[in-house]
Amino acid sequence: MDKKDKFRGCLIGGAVGDALGYAVEFMSESEIFAKYGADGISKYELDGGKARISDDTQMTMFTATALLDGITRGKLRGIMGSFESYIAAEYNGWYLTQTRKFPIDISENYAQYSWIMNIPEMFSQRAPGNTCLSSLESGTPVADSKGCGGIMRVAPIGLFFANGHWNQKQDWIDRLGAEAAAITHGHPLGYIPAAALVHIISLLVKNDDISVLDAVADSVVCMRKLFGDSEHVERFHRLMEKSSSLAFSSADDLDAIHQLGEGWVAEETLAIAAFCAIRYENDFESAIRAAVNHNGDSDSTGAVCGNILGARLGYGKIPRKFTENLEFHDVLLELADDLLSDYRDDSIWNEKYIHKTYRR
């Protein structure tokens, strides 16, 4: 499969799950099924003609621009800071969009600024996570937080390096996923699942033949090697094995998800998303619907499931009803294509990642 299709599928797939789940994020199952029927929510609730994304996709977009800002400086200057430093800086840019009004002066905030901050709609609070807000305000991660705010934003890391950029080994790429999550979430179960998601996406992009089940299993083995000194890695291992086992069991979707949790914490988010992606590996819509119609953090479990299956199936396999009216659809396609490119020496690229003045 064309990698462009996988890159686009991963980012758009994540936004689809996010937008579908965002409408029901704080609803109980009884409320969801009473409002939408026995199958739950299956199509977007539009607001001003758009299916609105949450902070999950907002922060994913900032992760993407941070990687691209970093590599642009590396290409042009032959020296750059760590990728983690660029990611941390641009998460602070996201924080500005949640606490200030559009527009923001680029010259006063250049290090934190990215071209997507030239989009007025980005300056909208979409149920931002308290851990993300408080840690970015203080400049210190919340040590005991394992919330899903770390995992839901790291998919671009798995994409970018899967194309061979910078020739980094997989364990280095996985660790960057953990470091990106640990900027705000200090508990090992806040960042180990993020590393695992990066690993899963990398494998699915690199290899057309690998199944979601095998990618998930490989991620668990590698997390035990990378984080074997953490007492929490066994909890992660057991939960992910349970997720895979349930995918092939006779349990219905809701019963299985109830056994995995609600997705408010990162290891449960990945377990639920993986369960849905494994069970419905070739059916994007069924996977996303299962991932969002439950009591828990529907937008985050939907987003992570969409990232995984989007990377597996590609953009072309996402039903059109989900790509139409999706907020930031075209911006996400542009970011996906830029991640695939690595770097281009042209005026538009320079406007985006050097001057940061680009406007669509």
List the helices and strands and how they pair.
Elements: H1 3-22, H2 29-36, H3 55-77, H4 83-99, H5 130-138, H6 155-162, H7 170-182, H8 188-206, H9 212-226, H10 233-247, H11 253-260, H12 266-279, H13 284-292, H14 298-313, H15 320-323, H16 329-341, H17 347-353
Helix pairs in contact: 1-13, 1-14, 1-16, 3-4, 3-6, 3-16, 6-7, 6-8, 7-8, 8-9, 8-14, 9-10, 10-12, 11-12, 12-13, 12-14, 13-14
Q: What do you see in this structure?
A:
By secondary structure, the chain is mainly alpha-helical. The chain has a domain at 3-53 and 146-343: ADP-ribosylation/Crystallin J1 (ADP-ribosylglycohydrolase fold, Orthogonal Bundle), CATH 1.10.4080.10. It has 17 helices and no strands. The chain has helices spanning 3-22, 29-36, 55-77, 83-99, 130-138, 155-162, 170-182, 188-206, 212-226, 233-247, 253-260, 266-279, 284-292, 298-313, 320-323, 329-341, 347-353. Helix 1 runs antiparallel to helix 16 (329-341), helix 3 (55-77) runs parallel beside helix 16 (329-341) and helix 8 crosses helix 9 (212-226). The longest helix has 23 residues, at 55-77. It is globular and about 55 Å long. It starts with a helix and ends in a 7-residue tail after the last helix. The mean pLDDT is 96.
